[in-house]
Specification:
174 residues; alpha/beta; Rossmann fold; 4 helices; 32% helix; His_PPase_superfam; His_Pase_superF_clade-1
Length: 174
């Protein structure tokens, strides 16, 4: 029997910094380097050895983040759905990311037992977000994945009435 998540349950989510990227005339067009791709593949394999298996991978629209998300999916989670969202660009703001995360969590909770979600983004957004949501400072190098746990919103609460995504740090792959 599969037990679906209900409001008040804990949700696992993670945020990953894209792999090392080379130079380009336009920042949004920077592509992963060979070593950046190798680190992403290594970290994806390490992630697949954990209990965290994302059903959804959401990346920033920048090329390096989309390449990172695609490599993670190809390497370890071929059944994960892939989405792109501009809330995850380097200049994104906390509330935009929390809104995106809550929409994914609440949507997934209705049709699966474990809606683990992986976000692929950039610095300084990741470091700031992790610090604000967990109260912990984490070094976020290219390819780092930070795992967190948060409470589902309480019954009758909208995503903007929650604890603002406050999470506890559960693991780091670096």
């Amino acid at each position: 029997m599969v037990r679906h998540l209900v409001r008040g349950d804990k949700v696992n989510w993670a945020i990953m910094r894209h792999g090392e990227a080379g130079r380009a005339a336009i920042d949004a067009d920077r592509r992963l380097t060979v070593s950046g791709r190798e680190v992403v593949v290594d970290h994806a394999r390490r992630l697949s050895d954990t209990a965290f298996h994302p059903r959804t991978i959401v990346s920033s629209s920048l090329v390096r983040a989309r390449e990172t998300a695609a490599l993670v999916r190809e390497t370890a989670f071929p059944d994960a759905s892939m989405l792109v969202d501009d809330a995850l660009v380097p200049s994104g703001i906390r509330q935009g990311v929390i809104g995106l995360l809550m929409a994914q969590v609440l949507g997934a909770a209705s049709d699966c037992a474990q809606p683990d979600i992986l976000l692929v983004s950039h610095q300084p957004l990741i470091g700031d977000l992790v610090a604000e949501l967990t109260g912990r400072l984490v070094s976020v190098h290219p390819g780092t994945i930070v795992g967190m746990m948060m409470d589902m919103p309480s019954e009758g609460m909208s995503s903007d009435q929650t604890n603002n995504g406050d999470s506890s740090l559960t693991w780091v792959i670096d």
